[in-house]
Predict the structure.
Amino acid sequence: MDIPISGHIRHSHVTDRDEVRAARHLPSVLFLNRSYWPDVEATGQLLTQLCEGLTQDFEVGVLAGRPNAIVNKLDVQDWRTADERHGVHIQRVAHANFPKRNLAGKALNFVSFAHATHSALRTIAAPNVVVFETDPFLLAFAASRLQKRTHCKMIGYLQDIYPDVAVALGKVGNNWAVRKLRAALFNIYRRCDRMVVLSQDMSDLLTDGGVAADRISIVPNWADTHRIAPVRGSSRFREEHQLGQKFIAMYSGNLGLTQRLEEFVQAAVMLKDRPDILLCFVGRGSQESSLRELVKAHGLTNVQFFDYQPQDELTHSLTAANLHLVPLTKELSRCLMPSKLYGILAAGRPYLTNAPMGSELHMISTTQQVGLTVEPGSVQAIATRILWAADHPAELETMGCKARQLAESAYTQQHSLTKFRTVLQHVLA
């Protein structure tokens, strides 16, 4: 795939593998998403693994932006210069990069990247397939223009569904402008050769919006079950941070608007008389400052914050927890599926979720017996369940074993890679 390289990126040497792929005349697939290697945010990690896994069968390119979070210092300079990595062609566009905690700045980041992507696509040679993700959701418009100009195939790959997420969070009202935006997005979704979503709940939302059911594929996210696995014995993460033998309830991932993480801090207030129980937030995000302020306001000593962990350390951080926290409100359950679930399962750890009854996450938790559930919106129920978990280690051990078995049987990278490869082959047939 002939992807033009922007001025600040150097060309790499042509390898034997490149020549073999060129000789095979593989179909070209171009992914659009702001987050990509070395960004440690979940969507970027997942897309990186997907793209690299597809290079045996497709000429894969990515049009990406600036990473929000880089943990490995060796990657800081590499991302600025790499135009190919592990067989994937990479082009990055310049865009605004305001702190995510600033909503206005975050919006400018979205618009800036979408505009830069649209400009870059004007000169890119036509791929056989363009796949747009939702970081940001405005990429659907850029992909649609490319499809109209080049007549390439178009796939929407939704990690979340906007503007429904923003409406569900109460960040925007369901006013005329929002409804107009939603109508425009769903018009593109209906024109896509294929829509890929993460869960049945998300699929149902699309069909309610007029997308034909036979054009929707469900490809769940996954975890690298080779890299993330149960650890027996001493915990490196616990030792490094001097956490001892405390019962750890952990939230690991983006500290963002969609999570309503303040409910867990409020539950920690109710648990402050149990010094053996510790709530850990591992990650960054727009809500980190407000969460820290809430902890400070209540004078809590049973809540700690940690930075994102490098991929090579995920096993040690995830397995350090006795119980993970996976929030999903009723309003959001049809708009997204928490990607953190799969790493937790791979680590062989149980979790607590407030996902509504009837949602796919609630169903997985109960039918597979891998997670505890609580009534949505009840801080008291969260605190009570954490207390129960702290006092029932044998039951948690059993749930953790089942979690690992489920990860290996249904949520490996290879499972999802096979499904996505089939989607591409179907669209190209």
Q: What stands out?
A: Confidence is low (pLDDT under 50) at residues 2-14. The chain has two domains: 16-222+412-428, 236-410. Residues 16-222+412-428 form a domain with the Rossmann fold fold (CATH 3.40.50.2000).
